[in-house]
Structure formats: structure tokens, C-alpha cells
Amino acid sequence: MEMRTLKHWLSDTFTRFRLHRVIRRAFRHDLGRYIRFSTPPSGGSAEQQGARLAAIAHGLEKSLAMNPLRPGFGIGKARMLLRLLRGYEASCPDRLDQFEYQLSIGILFHYVEFQKKCGTALPKELETFTLPGPGHGGTTVRKCGELLEAARGDFRKLAESRVSIRDFSSEPVSMEAIRDAVSLARRTPSSCNRQPGRVYAVIDPERIRKVCGLLPGFHAFGSSVDKLLLAAADTRVFSEAGERHQMWTEGGMFAMSLLYALNYLGIATCVLNWSVVPERDAEVRRILEIDEAHEILFFIALGHFKEENKVALSERRPVEEILFIR
Ligand SMILES: Cc1cc2nc3c(=O)[nH]c(=O)nc-3n(C[C@H](O)[C@H](O)[C@H](O)COP(=O)(O)O)c2cc1C
């Protein structure tokens, strides 16, 4: 081998080796976090137990919406849910206002009511189950015309006009608008309705300055940012090996809804990547006091449009390249 080629080969091999070592370390870091925070097979924190309750309760709730309903279905699942609810009450007596607990107990109530109406013979613990407070969950009937009409808002216009803005006017973004957008994003579907999406609104100028200094993709910005959102997902609601990527998939879906909701409300946005190594991730966690079980997906810069907004065209691939028909 020629000397220059050999030197090039050695340098390339060394660079690859170093890169692979960093990648392995980052994956090990993620693995450790998933093992630490995902829902264990039993017990766990209030959030982890809540996720288990929500997943089982949702199984009953969606069965209640099935047509036709088989009287007597799901008794085993309902008993398991009741056992877990009692376990939750015993281990987290000060967290009985938690959303998942309230929702699950409400769903169990609807389930028991349905079975009683059908005259199903229930085990004693279900037969005597009563609801301590106002109910949540259950089913509802939505008319076809109503659903079609509601979906006919101009999504085409919204999708085709959404564009990343990197230079904002000086008008501040209101917290009301942010709350409204988060509220709309809550409608994002999630597996077993476990709702992993979380949002941090960064409004303190000093924190915004510090975070912007750590963002790998902030250099193309023409103005400072009025407010930043951090899109996150709660690892605690997922369990087992099969769900190990769901913080990213479901968190991403939630964040996309949030982005559309912000655009719908007239707020200009730009997603800012958080493609960083664990050390930088830890730095931002410290600055923003992020819950340790939340994974950071990315940031969203917020502002208002200027009268004229020069933007990158960012052309899209043709449909034929991304749609595969089998
Ligand atoms: C996950 C993600 C990370 C991004 N990171 C950055 C970033 O760091 N800096 C930036 O200026 N734009 C960033 N963007 C914006 C993209 O460049 C932009 O969405 C893409 O070019 C398409 O353009 P459009 O949003 O105007 O349609 C990011 C977008 C996504 C979805």
C-alpha cells in the first residue's frame, strides 16, 4: 500500500473507532435511563403505577366501545385492575388525585355498571365496587356527520403554509396561546392512552440565553427568541423491551401536534434539534430543572411573524419516493 493511502486508511479507521465508541456510550446511557425509569413488572413510583393502571383501564374502556359487546367480557382484567388500584391506594395514599388513578377508577366503575346492567354474575369484590368521587372515562357516541364536519377545517392550508421561521418580530408570545396549543396537542393519540408527551415552557430570559448557547442548530437565527418550548416524553409510562423507542415515536407525534397547534394559533415556530451527547443533555437538565424521567426530544423557538418573512424553500421529495405500495 502506498504511504499516503496507508496514512489515510489509518486516520479513517481511528476516526471510525472513536465515533463508534461515542455512539456506544450514548446508547448505553439511554439503555440505563430506560431500565431505570420505565414501568417495572410490579410496584414502582406513583407515575409508574399510574401508567400500569392507565394501560389496563384503557383495555377495558376500548372494549366497552366495541360493537356488539359480549356480556361478561374482561372480568379477569377488571379484577387485576381492582387489585392494582388497591395496591396504588395502599402505597400512594397522598396521590389519589393523580390523573391515571382517577381515570382508571372511573373506567372500572363504567365497566361494573355495564356488567350489572347485563345481569352478569360478578366476583364479590367487583360486585361491591363503588365509586368514591365523580366519574371519569367511559364511552360516548360521535355522529359520522359531526366527525366529518369537524375534520373539514382547512388542514391542507395549515400543512402547506407551516414553515420554519428563524427571525421573529418583537411582539411577545402570550402564555395563554402556549396553554391553548398544549391543550390542543393533548388530543394526540397514544398507546393505551398513556399520554407520554410533556412540554416545558422556558420564559425566563436568562435561562433562554443559556439554553440557546447550548443548541447545536441555533446559529441560523436572525433574532433572539421570546420563548422556547422543550418537547419531552415521560419514560415512566412505558414498559418492557418492545416499548423502548416509544418516548421518541409517541413524543414526536405529540410534538408535531403541538407545532401545528402553535401555527394554527398564529405563532411562528422553528424546531431546534437536541442532537447532543449525554453530557450536554445533563447540562440543560440542570439549567431547566427537568424531571429526571423525562426524555428531551427537541426545542421549539417561538415568536411572531414579521410583515415579510424570508424563509428557506426546503423542497420536499416527490410522493413516489416515499410512498411504497405492496
Ligand atoms: C427534529 C428537528 C430538528 C431541527 N433542528 C433545527 C435546528 O437546530 N435549527 C434550525 O434552524 N432548524 C431546525 N429544524 C428545522 C428544519 O430545518 C426544517 O423543519 C426543515 O428544513 C423543513 O423546513 P420547514 O420547517 O420550513 O418546512 C429542525 C426540524 C426538526 C423536525
Report on the structure:
This protein has helices at 3-37, 46-64, 75-91, 99-118, 124-127, 144-151, 155-161, 175-185, 205-214, 246-264, 278-288, 319-322, and strands at residues 197-202, 227-234, 268-273, 294-303. It is α+β, with helices and mostly antiparallel strands and 326 residues long. The chain has two domains: 46-127, no CATH class; 155-303, NADH Oxidase. Strands 1-2-4-3 form a four-stranded antiparallel β-sheet. It is globular, with a radius of gyration of 24 Å. It binds flavin mononucleotide.
- Helices and strands, in order, run as HHHHHHHHEHEHEHEH
Largest sheet: 4 strands, antiparallel
Helical residues, percent: 40-55%
Number of domains: 2
Q: Please report the distance between the alpha carbons of the first and last residues.
A: 48 Å
Q: How confident is the prediction overall: mean pLDDT?
A: 93
Principal-axis shape equals globular
Strand content: 5-15%
Q: In order across it, which strands form the biggest sheet?
A: 1-2-4-3
Count of beta strands: 4
**Any idea of the CATH topology of the largest domain?**
NADH Oxidase
Number of helices: 12
Rg over C-alpha atoms, rounded to the nearest angstrom: 24 Å
What's the oligomerization state? single chain
List the bound ligands. Answer: flavin mononucleotide
